[in-house]
Design brief:
Helix content is 81%, strand content 0%. It is mainly alpha-helical. The longest helix has 32 residues. The protein is elongated and about 55 Å long.
């Protein structure tokens, strides 16, 4: 799917510098940044779900520890 990305002049300059640093096209830097952002969010979601599950499954022990 093609899409248009509108950036400010400052954002464009930052993206251009980053692309030059990485030896990549600006297009590739944007694509990788999107993939990384989504992966980080998915990881955070998994960690949150796991923490809730552990808190629920071990509520009694956690309550006893908080009273110690």
């Amino acid at each position: 799917m093609a899409m248009t990305l509108r950036l400010s002049d400052e954002e464009t300059a930052l993206l251009r510098r980053q692309a030059e640093r990485e030896g990549r096209s600006m297009h590739e830097v944007v694509r990788l940044a999107i993939q990384e952002r989504i992966a980080r969010q998915e990881h955070s979601d998994r960690v949150r779900r796991a923490a809730r599950r552990v808190a629920t499954e071990h509520r009694e022990i956690l309550d006893r520890l908080s009273d110690a």
